[in-house]
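WARN no homologs supplied; continuing
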Amino acid sequence: MNPTSPGATVRAAGCVLWRRSADGEVRLCLVHRPKYDDWSWPKGKLKRDEDALVGALREVAEETGCRAEPGTELPGQHYLASGRPKHVRYWAAEALTCAFTPTDEVDRIVWLAPDAARARLTRPQDRPLVDALLAVLDRPRPATRPE
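OK structure emitted
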């Protein structure tokens, strides 16, 4: 099926963008979209034939001004958007550098503690991604062997 045909699933991708505060606590980045007056994760539609992870990092850069290091893929979401099925893939991504500039698409970003981020997210379906990220960050890292 042609990806632009009326019944085609809209492919999108984004990240649960995180960083550590000065005191070492996890902070999550939410974006405010004035068109919908909502708070969500940075995400967007994929370009034709674009790899989902590449698209997720592109959307993070466009919406937040952050360059990010991708990590584990998190649970995706399936829902109807404007009457069409939509599938969004998400990754955990650590923000390395950020220089946010407001745009018509995203006019504000906030960095919040996990509980505050969960409360601020507009769509209830976005909230489980907070716990999915925290589970990934709490996993012990494999021991590295000296060479």
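The chain has three helices and seven strands.
OK
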